[in-house]
Write a structure and sequence with these properties.
The chain is of the alpha/beta class. It contains 10 helices and 12 strands. Strand 3, helix 5 (about 125-140) and strand 4 form a beta-alpha-beta unit. This is dTDP-4-dehydrorhamnose reductase.
């Protein structure tokens, strides 16, 4: 790798996965420790002015965007301002910016898979913030890659998977929507995709733009929950054997989560040659890490 790579957010689950995968291929990252209060406009400006890497992977707010149960409007506002400034500094120093985004930019009103050509209409606070962040990145930094991910699953204790598994240890019903669809995407697979994109950008291929990536085989939230419990029970004692079905409209997060969140991944395949991997094959190692770290 000829490019000097900087990773913001090396301490979160996706950052760990990216560093681990890069090390296996002899690819290293500058991964600065964030300030005590997290990355803000001033600290990001100073960082880029001093280091000037060739490419920056911005996972600074990964947990809030992809794993947190909820995020306040004030916190998202601060992050929007910070990313806008980050994009401006990347453009000024000619730094390639790889910025993650999410299926949440769509409202889930259509049953067919969303492509990069579909117009975002986000539902909740996070989706709206991510859509504004996408727009600011496009406007400020032409040399960017925006990667919209599907349902990201990682091994963090307080993430989506961790909260679900803790609830499965309680002897009470665990309802999940049987009419909500998406693409589960293990964090290791997301890291593989980021690294694959970086390798081709390192060859000076001007493949800027927005891309979708999500695990192969769309499924329902209920079927995903069943698969997780089935695999988890081989490693750990759980109080329930399976989740129970519930309608999407009856879920407490129906106003925030798109009912249909399936992403079409043809563009990233045709442009970068990245093929979607089956999410089911990534569950065993993901759950093994979760229980070992827990």
């Amino acid at each position: 790798m000829r490019m000097r790579l900087m990773l913001l957010g090396g301490g979160n689950a996706l950052g760990h996965a990216l560093i681990r995968l890069g090390a296996e291929e002899g690819i290293g990252f500058l991964a600065p420790r964030p300030p005590d209060n997290g990355w803000d406009v001033a600290s990001l400006t100073d960082l880029l002015d001093e280091t000037r890497p060739d490419a920056l992977i911005n996972l600074a707010y990964y947990f809030d965007w992809f794993q947190a149960d909820a995020v306040s409007q004030a916190r998202l506002d601060q992050q929007e301002i910070a990313v806008e400034r980050l994009a401006e500094r990347c453009q000024e120093h000619q730094i390639v910016l790889l910025q993650p985004s999410s299926y949440r930019v769509f409202d889930g009103s259509r049953a067919t898979a969303y492509s990069e050509k579909d117009e975002p209409v986000p539902l909740g606070l996070r989706g709206q913030a991510l859509w504004r962040i996408e727009q600011s990145v496009r406007a400020a930094c032409p040399r960017h890659v925006l990667l919209r991910f599907g349902w990201l699953l990682d091994d963090s204790a307080d993430g989506v998977l961790g909260r679900y598994l803790r609830r499965a240890e309680l002897p009470q019903p665990l309802p999940l929507a049987d009419d909500r669809r998406g693409n589960p995407t293990p964090v290791d697979d997301a890291a593989r995709v980021i690294l694959s994109v970086l390798k081709q950008l390192d060859c000076e291929a001007p493949l800027w733009g927005t891309y979708h990536y999500a695990g192969n085989e769309a499924t329902t939230a209920l079927a995903l929950g069943q698969a997780i419990i089935s695999e988890a029970k081989t490693m750990h004692s759980l109080a329930i054997d399976a989740p129970t079905a519930q309608a999407h409209a009856a879920r407490p997060d129906a106003g925030e989560e798109p009912q249909h969140a399936v992403l079409a991944c043809k563009k990233i395949l045709h442009t970068f040659g990245i093929k979607p991997r089956a999410w089911r094959s990534g569950l065993p190692s993901l759950l093994d890490r979760y229980y070992r770290h827990g």
